[in-house]
TrEMBL record:
Lineage: Eukaryota, Fungi, Dikarya, Ascomycota, Pezizomycotina
Cofactor(s) listed: heme
Protein name as annotated: Cytochrome P450
Transmembrane regions: none
Keywords: Heme, Iron, Metal-binding
Organism: Pseudovirgaria hyperparasitica
GO MF: heme binding; iron ion binding; oxidoreductase activity, acting on paired donors, with incorporation or reduction of molecular oxygen; steroid hydroxylase activity
Binding-site residues for heme, renumbered to this chain: 454
Keyword Signal: no
InterPro entries attached to this UniProt entry: CYP450_sterol_14alpha_dmase, Cyt_P450, Cyt_P450_E_grp-IV, Cyt_P450_sf
Similarity section: Belongs to the cytochrome P450 family.
Entry annotated with the keyword Heme: yes
Amino acid sequence: MLYRFSAARLVSCLGVQNSWIELRVRYAGYLAPVRISLPVDEIYMISGPTTLAALWRQKWLSSPIFAYTVGLKYIFGMREESIRTYKADNSGVYQKPHPDSNVEPRNRLDYLTHNGLLKGLAKEGLGPLLQRFEHNFRSRLSSLGVTEEWVEMPDLLEFFEQNVGNSILEALFGPTLLTRKNFLRDLWDFDRGIRFLGKRFPWFLAPKAHRARDRMLAHLQAWYIEARKGFTEASILPDGDGDPFWGSELVRSRQRYLLAADEQDDAAVSSVDLGLLWTSVTNIVPNALLTILHVFEDQELQSKLRQSLANLTKRSDGVSFNVEDLLQDPLMNSVYAETLRLHVHVFTTRCSPHQDFTDGRWFVPRNKVFMVNSYPAHMDNSYWNTKDGKHPLNTFWAERFILDPSDPLSGPRKDGLSHDDLGDKGIEKAGEKLFTLKGLDGAWIPYGGGYGACPGRHLARRQLLLIMATMLSMFDVEFLTPNITMDTSGFGIATEKPKQKVKFRMRKRVV
C-alpha cells in the first residue's frame, strides 16, 4: 500500500522551495512512502525512519545511476550519446557486478566512479587532501592581513567562497585550473543558475545559466590540454597524492577510466568533472558559513567551544589542531550535525534494476525510481528530541546530538538513549557527555545512506570541524546585518544560504 499523488501535485511541491511539506503524508501517525503518478511513469517518495533504515540496508538499492544521468544531461550538459553508456550500466556500485548484469568492465561507470570517489575522498586520498585543504585555508586567512582592530567586510558568503571554496578547489584540482581567467567568477555564476538547469529550463528561458555552464565546460576542456602537456610522474607531491596540474590522484584516475569507456571523450568527462567540482564546493561553502553564523551569534556557545579547544593539544606549529582530536569533541560535532540537520534539504535518488524492495510493510517494484528528501526526516517531530518543545526542530540547538548521563531528556531521539545503548563506547566513557548519531540512520540523512551514501561525507565533516576550530582560534566575528533569512530556492539540490548579503566585521583574536 502506498499513497498516490498526481503529477500536478508533484510539480507544485518540487518547484516551490519548501512546499515539499505538502508531501509529508502520515500513516497511523508516522511518515509514510507515497507514489507519484507521472504521465509516462511513476516515482516513489520514501520517508519514515524505519523504512529509510531498511532502504539503506538493501545492497542493490545503493546505485544513484538514475539521478546521476539526469544530472549529467540537464545540469552538467552531457550529450545523449555519452549518457547512453551510463544508462546501460545496471551492474551496481560494488566491485563484483550484479549476477544478472553483462556490462563490460570498462563500461561499469557506476562502480568505477563510486570507487574512485571512495579512494580519493574517504580512503587513501583523504589524509593528503585534508592536509592540503587546511594549509590552503590557513594561508588564505593569514594573507587577509586582519589585525587586532575591527575591519568590516561586505559579504559573508563571498568571504567563504574565496577562502573555503578556493582552498578545496586547489587541494582537489590543483592551482593550474584556478589560474584560468574568470574561472572562479564563471563557477559562481554557474552555481547561481543551477536551479534553472535543474528544472530543465531551456536556453531561451535561462540564457545566463546555460552560458555559465558552457563557459565552465570550456574551462575544463582547455585545462585538460594544459595539464596533459605539463604533468609527469615527477609532478606528484611528497604526499603521494597531489600535483600542481591535475590536483589529486582522484582527478588523474578519472582521466584514465572515464576515457576508456564507450562513447566518452573530453566533452563527456568535462560534464562529469563539472559535477564533482560543483558538489565539492557548493555544499561545504554554505555549510561552513552557516556553522560560523550559528557559532558566532551565540556568545555562550563560543565560550564553550573555545574552552574545548583550549584543552586540546595543538600541533608542533603551535597553531593548528589535530583533526582526530576534533572528531572526539562532543560539542563541536553536535554543532556540525545540527547545522546539517537544519539546513541540508536535498534529494537522494535510488533505483533497483533487478529486484523489488520491501521493508515488511511497504512494497515497491523493481526498476522504479526511489526519491528520499532529507527535509521530512530532519523535521519529524515524532522522532526527534525537542526537550519538551524547548528546542523546536526549526531552530538551532547546539547540543541536540549530545547524550548527557546527568540529563534523562538529552540525546537526539525523542524515545531517549542511554550510555548503555552505546555498547563498549558507553562503558568506556561512562559519566561523560557523548556525541551520538546512533539510531538515526533513517532520520539524519544529509548525505543519503547505505553503501551509496555521499563518499565525501568523511572529508566534509573534517573540513567543517577544522574551519570551526580555525575561525574560533584566530578571530572574533560580529554580524552587522539584522534579521538574516534563508534562501531556499535551491531546495532539493543544495544547502540553504542567506537570502541577503551578510555584512560582518572581524578582528584578530588576542588571548
